[in-house]
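Practice problem 4.
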């Protein structure tokens, strides 16, 4: 308890909130908006599908920037936690567990981003075949 007071309950709560934000961003990368590209093609044609594809790509870039910004914000807080944990047996293991979680979330985010990009490209390739044939 003395360590929590020494470390600052609000500071620890801020670190945990930031970590939860990172988890949310990483989990929200994969969504079905890329299927809207296909719908736009059938409803409005190639130009509408190209616009929707660009929207999806821009959304993905925005999510990547947001994730990296939050990671940049979290890193100094994690260093503070590690420094505080060195003097506390009650926080022992917390900083390494958070570091492991952070590494896992970064890996999950990168994998989800890559899958989303690949699905966009697969759908776009399908649309091009529909539009121009098998060339």
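Answer key:
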């Amino acid at each position: 308890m003395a360590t929590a007071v020494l470390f600052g309950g609000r500071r620890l709560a801020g670190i945990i909130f930031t970590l939860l934000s990172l988890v949310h961003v990483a989990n929200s990368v994969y969504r079905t908006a890329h299927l809207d590209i296909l719908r736009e093609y059938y409803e409005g044609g190639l130009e509408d599908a190209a616009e929707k594809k660009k929207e999806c790509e821009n959304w993905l870039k925005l999510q990547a920037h947001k994730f990296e910004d939050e990671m940049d914000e979290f890193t100094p807080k994690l260093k503070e936690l590690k420094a505080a944990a060195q003097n506390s047996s009650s926080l022992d293991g917390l900083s390494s567990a958070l570091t492991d979680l952070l590494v896992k979330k970064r890996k999950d985010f990168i994998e989800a981003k890559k899958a989303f990009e690949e699905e966009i490209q697969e759908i776009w390739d399908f649309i091009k075949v529909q539009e121009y044939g098998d060339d």
